[in-house]
Give the backbone structure.
Amino acid sequence: MNSEPNNLPGEVPIVLVHLGNNIPLYLKLNLRYLKNLGGRIVLVTDSIKIAKSNRRKGLEVFLFEGTPREVLRLSSSLDHNHRFREGFWYKAIIRFFALEAYMKMSKEEQLIHLESDVWISPNFPARKLLDNTKGLAFPLCNATTAIPSVFVVKQLKALIDFNHFSESKIQSDPKATDMSLLSEFQRINPNVVTLLPTLNRALIRHSMEDEVAKLPALVSKDWDGIFDANTIGQYFFGWDPRNERGYRLLFQNYNEHFVNPARARLFFEESRLFISKDGEVSPIFNLHLHSKDFRIFISYLLPMMVWFRSIQSIRGPKRQKTIEIIARRLRSLRNSIIRNINLVIRRGTE
């Protein structure tokens, strides 16, 4: 993939947050990819080990140590399975408090937060995001679900207000998620939040045309491209196999999403990624790669994968085995062999 001058502003940080002791391969590769793009990349983590290892690699790192008020209150109030992915739902919310702590400690006035499984194009419009948004900015998946795949903090006060809102809301709704909290916050505070465009006319799901009409920012042409909340990346590259017992579900078209990716095609033109459907073509500034497929963050592999997945999508939904399936079956085979050996040994000693 050819390189081109990037739009990442050197003075404003692109921030990724990872809470936990083990850093996954896709995040390591994404950090390397982002560092090669240029700009100022920051990793926020609560792990001393991860902080030290990434500082040695020359990455800017902020060590987040949550205050008892934030951590204990949220942890005790949220009614989610805390064992799921080592507290996934809790961490998805607490990361916004980590961003607030980072901004206060570093005296940063603005930042752009990317989720760890989000790829951005070399023509990602970072400067335009900072110049043309309100207090916060992020995309929607549907009218009640926000996806902070790309999350802009233009004003620290707006982030603080959102975190206060989250703390209060969780007391009355312990099943709240980061997605529902962001969506409700933007409905209550439309003057504080900018919705990022995720659609061109051809991508609008017909059953949701009336809902989309109420949110004209979603199809705004002012940006010269669209952002992927989650639908496009999930459709072409699949769901996280851990959610489907090791299988990667590809080309699944979900009726509750604004974006209808059926019959769409992805392609690169030089280093820019585009989506084409029914004759309408738009640049895509990012892909939200729910599948965590680390190959996508390897620059020379991505164009081939985009081409291949676009061809595969013509055949419709696909259930693909992953290395996790093979590993699970090998573990099962190993355990079976061990059991049989132990059985033979016990019989031989009787």
About this structure: The two ends are 66 Å apart (CA to CA). The chain has one domain: 13-328. The mean pLDDT is 89.
